[in-house]
Structure formats: C-alpha cells, structure tokens
Specification:
This protein is mainly α. It has helices spanning 7-14, 18-26, 45-59, 64-68, 74-78, 97-124; strands spanning 34-35, 41-42. The protein has one domain: Multidrug-efflux Transporter Regulator, Chain: A, Domain 2 (Orthogonal Bundle). Strand 1 and strand 2 form a beta hairpin. Helix 1 packs across helix 3. The chain is elongated and about 70 Å long. It starts with 6 loop residues before the first helix and ends in a 7-residue tail after the last helix. It comes from Kitasatospora putterlickiae.
C-alpha cells in the first residue's frame, strides 16, 4: 500500500497488531498519526517502515525505554539504505551507542548471574534431596 492506511492495515503490513501501534504511540516511538475526517488514525508507508525498525531493535534486546530515549533518531534507521544513528560520525550521548553499551552491560550481568546459578545447581545436583 502506498496511500493512507487504517490502523489494522498498517499493523498487518508491519507484522504487528493495532494494539502495538497504539502502544508505540503512547511511548513516543511513533509520532501521532494524521486523522481522517471521522477521527480514525491514518498511517503512511513511512510508519510501517519505522515500526519494522522498532520491532527489529526490540527483537535484538533493546527495550521500549531504550528506544524512547532515542526515538528522534529512529527515522535514520528507517531510511533505505539505513543511515548511521551517530550525529557526526561520533558515538556521543545523542546516538544509540550509549544505549547499546548499557544494554550489553545489563545482559552481561544477567549472563554472569545465570552462569553462577547454573554452576551452583550443577554442584548440588547429586545432593539435592526432596522431602
């Protein structure tokens, strides 16, 4: 589709649900859509592309909060070909680099915690007695 789409059509084209589109709007990941004369949301193809970018970033492990902090940069990733989210080739505070570094640190801490838990369980596997 190239013209305005209703929320159901836009959601289907992006591989998600109308509820997700409304959620992304509420969280600031999508700008408020245009409205038809009857008040229905009207989305363009750029919204579908942006939602696909959002879904990809969420699938990579970033959170909605991570993306909301850089929502103004999401359109750079939605371009064809995608542009860097670095403002001038650097990795300053306005880019995704700090967000990604922070998320990697959180994942590393969780992996370390789970590794310790696994090792502890493995050590006690033969001695665990259930009542």
């Amino acid at each position: 589709m190239t013209g305005p789409m209703r929320i159901g059509d836009a959601a289907a084209a992006a591989g998600t649900t109308p509820r997700a589109l409304r959620f992304y709007e509420q969280r600031g990941l999508l700008p408020p859509p245009a409205r038809t004369a009857s008040g229905q949301r009207a989305y363009g193809p750029e919204t579908v592309t942006r939602v696909r970018v959002i879904r990809t970033l969420l699938a990579l492990g970033l959170t909605v909060e991570d993306l909301a902090s850089r929502a103004h940069r999401l359109d750079l990733l939605a371009e064809d070909p995608p542009r860097s989210c670095a403002s001038t080739g650097d990795f300053g505070p306005d880019t995704f680099a700090p967000v990604i570094e922070q998320r990697l640190a959180v994942l590393d801490a969780e992996i370390a915690r789970l590794t310790r838990l696994r090792e502890s369980l493995a050590r006690h596997a033969g001695t665990v007695v259930l009542p």
